[in-house]
Amino acid sequence: MIEISLPEIDHVAVRHAVSLSLATGRSIRLAGAFGFVKENPAAGNLLADWENALGVLSAGSFRNDGDDLLFAPGALKNGDYVFETGAFSSALELVLLLLPPLTRLEYRSSLGVRGVTHSHLSCTTDFANLTLFDVLERMGFFLHLSLKRFGFYGSGGGLLEAKAYPEESGAGIPSLRYGDVRITGARVYIAKLPTHIAATQREILVERAGIPAPAVGIVEVLDADGPGNFIQVYAECDGGVRIEQAVSPVYSGQGAYLFDAEAAAETAKSAVEACERLVAGKAVPERAVREILPYIVLSGSGIPAWAGGAGERLAAAFR
After folding, report:
1. Given its phi and psi angles, is residue 298 left (phi above 0), alpha (psi -120 to 50 degrees) or beta?
2. 257 CB-contact burial (10 Å; exposed 0-12 / middle 13-18 / buried 19+)
3. What pLDDT was estimated at residue 181?
4. DSSP strand pairing (181-191 vs 216-220)
5. What are 231's strand-pairing partners?
6. Within a 10 A sphere around the Cβ of 211, how many other Cβ atoms?
7. Max Cα–Cα distance, the chain, nearest Å
8. pLDDT tens across 43-72, in order?
9. Cα–Cα distance, 261 to 245 (Å, whole number)
């Protein structure tokens, strides 16, 4: 069993450790992870989904020893699978858990997941396709995501489909810098919430991010389960379209309603800050950079300095 101790624990770190355990077939003990889950209901909801899905696949089991989380992987097989995740969770987080180990299999696999497609706990489907998967494709990992129906946190009811293809190794880590970045527009998505909130968010994007008003659209999502709100900013980076995002938390992990005008304004400000970072840094967004770590480990590439202490420890555990 691999003993893993990370300087900081969050649900992404737990997910990465479990993904790598599935991909390598090696059991893990992640120090403090069960304690983290107990103290964070939102993370507990995610773990419950992972446990259910892996149980259906007979691909692994969780248990705890004090505050440590233990995971024993089973044999993950390629195939076409359908899962249902909770209303206070994230369907995309389950997809991100399973994609790295699925790329190690001999044949293509597909996942259909019902639940929350756009959660503040994860990235949006467009961000995954156009920003994260672009980097992974240049590393030899070919993935695709399709949004079939919107489902928002607290209600679920959405549907997404993902495909993972066998890894084509040897590509190495691509440059994570852009030579040229230009913000081209944004969209404010809103469902089953007052539309004036979206109009206010649009004004913030125009005034603070300097995006021309005609380039900021408002999309009222009619075919959606539950209320939701998120913003996507579109940028042309070295000739390709890339996305930054900001998702409003509408409910807490315990079901308390959180959304108001102030929360909506904070979401818009987060989108503005994402624009500023992208233009000033001319680099792949940090959220996408962090998500490529399991693939770097699986590819056998050297761990770059930007991975930090947590990345280095996680990679060293599976080398």
Report:
1. alpha
2. exposed
3. 95
4. parallel
5. 188, 246
6. 21
7. 56
8. 999 999 999 999 999 999 999 999 999 999
9. 18
| Residue pair 229/198 in contact by the 8 Å Cβ criterion | yes
Name the residue with tokens 């995954």.
Answer: 128
User: Residue 249 to residues 87, 118, 227: CA-CA distances in angstroms?
Assistant: 13, 10, 10
Cβ atoms of 57 and 74 within 8 Å: the answer is yes
Question: In the structure, what pLDDT confidence band is assigned to residue 314 with cuts at 50, 70 and 90?
Answer: confident
What's the pLDDT score for residue 172?
A: 81
Determine the distance from the C-alpha atom of residue 223 to the mean position of all C-alpha atoms in its chain, rounded to a whole number: 23
State the sign of the Cα–Cα–Cα–Cα dihedral 211, 125, 141, 303. positive
Q: 170 pLDDT exceeds 90?
A: no
Pairing of strands 80-84, 109-115: parallel
Question: Which of 215, 85, 92 shows the shortest CA–CA distance to 157?
Answer: 85
pLDDT at 305: 73
Among 28-32, 40-44, 86-90, 171-175, which stretch is predicted with the lowest mean pLDDT?
Answer: 171-175
Distances (CA, A) of 234 to 61, 168, 279, 310: 40, 29, 12, 30
Q: For residue 215, what is the DSSP state?
A: G
CA gap 181, 186 in Å, rounded: 15
Helix (H) or strand (E) holding 76: none
Helices (H) and strands (E) in the chain, counts: 11, 13
Q: Please say if the pLDDT value at position 308 is more than 90.
A: no
